[in-house]
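Bench notes, afternoon.
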Amino acid sequence: MQNMNQITISNAESIINAPLPTKYSPSTYYPHPFSSHPEKISLRNAQFGASLPQRKENQEITSLEKEQKENLKSDNILLERKGYSIYLINSLKQRIKVSTLIKHMYAWRGYCTKDTSVFSSNPFQITFAAYNKQTILGTITLTIDSDKGLLADQHYKQEVNNFRKKNRIICEVSKLALNFNSNSKEILASLFHVSYIYAHYIFGAQDALIEINPRHALFYKRVMGFRQVGAIRTCQRVNAPAVLLHLDRDHIRDQITTQVGCFARHSKKSIYCYFLSEHEEESVIDRIKQMP
């Protein structure tokens, strides 16, 4: 019988190297929210971050290069801020670290952790993580609706279908976890903003959904403007109560435009003031374009 660890690694590597389907075109143009005269931004390269960087033949690998190979890849950095960076997660080691953080934080809250890893066969599922050097501070996973569906379909099929009937592209955020030692508001804002950039500029997503424990729902309603669209049900994946929340892309764009950097007025009731500046957002978009 094949060793279970070998099976896990084999499956994970096949997921990492899986090509992206072409249902949604990354070359589609979407307006930039900061522009008074919206620019047309083209995000090319359908294989963004989908495959691991390949080493040149006969390249001599020193001990330092071996160490760097095991650590985070600089070409996977999407955002650099004081004290941390946001990475696109696409290596086996990174996925293990992210999954470990999720399991640890979910277990601490008393949730079931069986289905909380970020190893998925869905190529429309993208995971981001915030790191301070080699310490993981937080993570979030973005899933774009496709023929594989969304996690929310398990408990809120009818509610999700109501958005699909409007011919709108839906995305879902899930597997959110923050390290106890992180600056939670800023890390949370950065992870959500990078997810927004991917969802909006690459896939043209118009609606965002999240399943959240009811005791945390008020926070997301207050600081981000989510609204409840599904009743309290038991989420079988984590064996805990959940509600379905929705956030419109236009609301996100409006809040980014008016609140970024306005800490004095908005820091207590919103996290949009911690979102990226226009310059930072453009930098993230440029990095996505340059990814192998």
